Amino acid sequence: MKFKYDEESVNTLMKWAESAQLPKEVVLSEAEHITDTSIYVRANINDIKQHYPDAFYNASIDRLYRLKIFVEEL
């Protein structure tokens, strides 16, 4: 899946992550077991705010997109 990394899309994603009703615990994949989604979201948003638009940190954006997809499929 292709994610968008323009400023408007990233800001929209961060607003979603800050306001979404998230389960406490999520298993995104065999290797990704998130035990506290609030800490997970906060850590990724902090990385984005600190380093955007450095493409090296696009992984933080990807993680939020993947969480959003997971939550919307519930």
Could you explain how this protein is built, in words?
By secondary structure, this protein is mainly alpha-helical. It has one domain (7-72). 58% of the residues lie in helices and 9% in strands. Strands 1-2 form a two-stranded antiparallel ribbon. The longest helix has 15 residues, at 37-51. The two termini are 19 Å apart. The model has no long low-confidence stretch (mean pLDDT 96).
Which terms would index this structure?
single chain; 74 residues; mainly alpha; two-stranded antiparallel sheet; 3 helices; 2 strands; 9% strand; globular
Write the layout of secondary structure elements.
Blueprint: H1 7-19, E1 26-29, E2 32-34, H2 37-51, H3 58-72
Antiparallel strand pairs: 1-2
Helix pairs in contact: 1-3, 2-3
Query: What is the beta-strand fraction?
Result: 5-15%
Shape estimate: globular
Report the order of strands and helices. HEEHH
How many individual domains?
Answer: 1
Contiguous helical run count: 3
- Structural class, please? mainly alpha
Helicity level: 55-70%
User: Could you report the average pLDDT, rounded to the nearest whole number?
Assistant: 96
Number of beta-strand segments: 2
Largest sheet, strands/sense/barrel: 2 strands, antiparallel
Radius of gyration: 12 Å
Main sheet: strand order: 1-2
Uncertain stretches of 5 or more adjacent residues = none
Distance between the termini: 19 Å
